[in-house]
Amino acid sequence: MERNGNNTTGGSDGKFEEMMLEGGIIDEPNELTPPSLSAPGSCLECPMFRRKAKEWAKLVGEFEDVKRIYPRIETEPERCIAEVALAGVMDEFNAAAKTIQARIDRITRICHGVAILSYINESTGEEDHVVACGSPRGGEWLGGLSNNQDQ
Hints:
two-stranded antiparallel sheet, 11% strand, elongated
């Protein structure tokens, strides 16, 4: 899912991966590494993309915490329960990443980058700036549809 090398993803815990490979739970290294999300470089400063990337990174971090705990589980029944749960969570991660990445691709396909608006702050008299999503489909970040659905 990576595009232009700009992404958000989780890390890899070697001991965890090794245990899962030896136990036959996974077939390939990094099979339990959450997928990354990506956007074109011109959209990396977009507050809407950054918000989604931050939410994704939080979920990935929580999953990575669980992976760090797994090697400490000592009894077989608890380990089996954890393995099933981890596999189920990876299925959900993959489905969510595919959906979110499709939305990112749709929104950024016609975007030329962020819109920077300048204004004079009336309380301070100083110039200030607001950064906004520059895509005509920017409303889709919030789950809604934009006025330009056919683009």
